[in-house]
Design brief:
This protein is an alpha+beta fold and 494 residues long. The chain is built from 11 helices and 7 strands. The chain folds into 3 domains: 181 residues, Four Helix Bundle (Hemerythrin (Met), subunit A); 93 residues, Helix Hairpins (Orthogonal Bundle); 146 residues, Heat Shock Protein 90, CATH 3.30.565.10. The chain has a 5-stranded mixed beta sheet. Strands 1-3 form a two-stranded antiparallel ribbon.
């Protein structure tokens, strides 16, 4: 993507594209997918950590609960053994106590190994101390009723402490569940914020790469559109992947080739015009001599043939001139060369009067009345080109007007514009033809029906010359033909 260029068309600032359009697509997809993949990986790790934490918490809580319940069960067995010893004095009960005590101490050791809360650690220590004091009594005191009552009190205290341990274990489970909920909420918030951050980033990257992808395609489309319209002055520069740039270079080669062909066409028209003008001039002058009977009296048949020769020579001469004029104007437009206007002050009404007078013979031949309704308007413009505009409009109206009809030629001010209307009573212009009649070589259906001959260049030249004066020309809906020219009034921009 080129932001600016030096006179040598080298980029001052440039984004380096991949060598191919496919490579650009792949890079775009990779970069857009990168934050999404990073977010997915991060979320996967968060979920994994949460899963490990939950498994650990569930394991610890389960072990703590089981140990607390087993401690209560083993403590009951120890209590029975000690009370039986106190009642009977049978030392076998001491051995049974020792066996239960071994299990009791192992449970306490396993319990203490867990990551317990400080209060549970303290409770386990007190249980161990209480059990040690009971074992000391059992080992040192002889059996008696008093010893049995002492065991009853001690084991009641031990049971209370064990039950408290069980309660603390349940509280531990609740704490772990609460901690998991907090961790889950934290992970959820983290995922939400990551998504909120990734989505705009991804959209921004998508927009950026859409622009990078669309720009060379748009440049190619614009270049093709300009070539289609015949606008050949501007060099075609397409920035992007190498294959797209190569396509742009090929289009620019085509542009240069079209310029060369345009030059050849212009030279051809000029050559043909020059070569045809001499014999046509001779033909026209010869027909004039015949029509004026300079070489002798003519009979009616000879006079008719001489008139036909004169009419056709004039028609052909005008056709050649129209072709040459239109070709030069189109060639200048395609090559971006602004056709020079000979801007001078003039009176539009006087110019119209001159054209009407020049068309007098054609008007008389069809018994047409030209009704002039013209204001006196001063204007700055190219008098010759504006004369051609009025002449072509009036000639067109005369050709299509029936014998004995009226042509209205109106010129008036409209704020800061000059408006000229040419109205006739001919067959009119169909709706579908109102835009196309200004296209070169276009002949409307009404022209074909009426049998009116023409080149289809007159109105095309009118449009070109009017637009050179920054004006407009259009067909107005009417019973006959109504053509309107709008020109910017004084001062005309030079």
């Amino acid at each position: 993507m080129i932001n600016s260029r030096t006179p040598n068309n080298k980029p001052l600032m440039e984004l380096r594209y991949p060598r191919s359009f496919l490579g650009l697509l792949l890079v775009g997809f990779a970069i857009v997918a990168l934050p999404l993949i990073a977010g997915l990986v991060s979320n996967a790790f968060s979920i994994e950590r949460l899963s490990e934490q939950s498994q650990k918490a569930v394991f610890n809580a389960t072990v703590a609960t089981q140990n607390a319940r087993q401690l209560s069960t083993v403590a009951l067995a120890m209590e029975r053994s000690s009370r039986f010893y106190a009642a009977s004095g049978d030392r076998d009960f001491i051995d049974a106590y020792k066996q239960s005590r071994e299990s009791f101490r192992k449970l306490l050791v396993a319990f203490v190994a867990l990551p317990l809360a400080p209060e549970m650690q303290s409770a386990a220590d007190l249980i161990q101390q209480r059990e040690a004091s009971i074992f000391t009594l059992l080992s040192t005191k002889p059996s008696s009723a008093e010893l049995g009552r002492q065991f009853e009190r001690d084991f009641a205290d031990l049971a209370t402490r064990t039950q408290a341990m069980n309660t603390l274990a349940n509280q531990l489970i609740e704490q772990e569940v609460a901690a998991l909920k907090t961790a889950a909420a934290k992970s959820r918030n983290q995922i939400v914020w990551q998504l909120l951050a990734m989505i705009p980033s991804a959209l921004l990257m998508i927009a950026g790469f859409t622009y990078l992808l669309a720009r060379p395609i748009r440049d190619l489309g614009d270049a093709i559109h300009r070539l289609g319209e015949g606008k050949l002055a501007k060099r075609i520069l397409v920035s992007g992947p190498r294959d797209i740039e190569t396509l742009g270079e090929q289009l620019d080669w085509l542009r240069q080739r079209l310029i060369s062909l345009e030059d050849q066409k212009t030279r051809f028209f000029q050559h043909v015009s020059h070569e045809l003008k001499t014999p046509l001039t001779a033909l026209r002058e010869g027909s004039d001599l015949l029509c004026d009977e300079v070489v002798g009296k003519l009979n009616n048949e000879q006079r008719e043939v001489a008139g036909i020769l004169k009419h056709n020579s004039l028609t052909l001469e005008k056709l050649i001139q129209d072709l040459l004029t239109y070709s030069q104007a189109q060639s200048s437009d395609r090559l971006g060369k602004k056709t020079a206007l000979d801007i001078k002050p003039l009176q539009l009404r006087d110019l119209i009067d001159h054209v009407i007078n020049a068309q007098r013979l054609a008007v008389i031949a069809k018994s047409i009345t030209v009704k002039r309704e013209c204001e006196k308007i001063a204007f700055h413009g190219d008098g010759e080109k504006l004369r051609v505009v009025v002449d072509n409009l009036l000639s067109n109206a005369i050709k299509y007007s029936p014998v004995g009809s009226i042509i209205i030629l109106r010129l008036a001010r409209d704020k800061d514009q000059a408006v000229m209307d040419v109205i006739d009573n001919g067959p009119g212009i169909a709706v579908e033809d109102r835009e196309r009649i200004f296209d070169p070589f276009y002949r409307s259906k009404s022209a074909a029906t009426a049998g009116v001959k023409g080149t289809g260049l007159g109105l095309a030249i009118v449009r070109d010359y009017v637009e050179m004066h920054q004006g407009t020309v259009k067909a107005i809906a009417a019973a006959g033909a109504h053509l309107r020219v709008v020109l910017p009034k004084l001062p005309f921009p030079t």
